[in-house]
Amino acid sequence: MARDYGLEEIVADDLRDISHVSDKAMFGGRAWLLEGRLLCGARDDGLLFRLGKGNDAWALALPCARATLAADWPGTSHSATICAFNSRL
User: Fold this and answer.
1) pTM of the model
2) What is the mean pLDDT of the chain?
3) How far apart are the C-alpha atoms of 53 and 48, rounded to whole Å?
4) Cβ–Cβ < 8 Å for 84, 7
5) What's the average model confidence in pLDDT over 12-21?
6) pLDDT at position 56 over 80
7) If you average pLDDT over residues 5-24, what whole number do you get?
8) Once rounded to an integer, what is the mean pLDDT over residues 57-72?
9) What are the DSSP E strand ranges found in the chain?
10) Cα–Cα distances in Å, from 78 out to 54, 56, 68, 72?
């Protein structure tokens, strides 16, 4: 899968001044983590965002969005929906 370096740079520029954000190669592109937890990602087919529990309805209502994962992690209070946004629409 090809990477979209232009999209990665846009996201990197927007997150550059936020404390505790790091980045690494992940999902066939580049991902950004906030305090070690997935925040968002960029690759050639669009953007990926981790939304907190109950914060996904607005995103999933967009025609360019789809849920790629909805999960509760046993034994923790962590819950998330991962939404992908097609940058080509």
Assistant:
1) 0.73
2) 79
3) 16
4) no
5) 95
6) no
7) 94
8) 73
9) 21-26, 29-34, 37-43, 46-52, 65-72, 79-85
10) 12, 15, 17, 6
In the chain, % helix, strand, coil (3-state, to 5) comes to 15, 45, 35
Compare 50 and 32 and report the one with higher pLDDT: 32
Dist. CA 33–CA 41, nearest whole Å: 9
Q: How far is CA 46 from CA 14, 30, 58, 66, in A?
A: 16, 11, 18, 11
State both tokens at 75.
Answer: 């034994």
Please give the Cα distance from 67 to 62 (Å, whole number).
11
| Residue in the structure block whose two tokens are 């992690």 | 73
Nearest to 7 by CA among 38, 29, 23: 29
According to the model, what pLDDT value does residue 87 have?
52
CA distance 59 to 85: 9
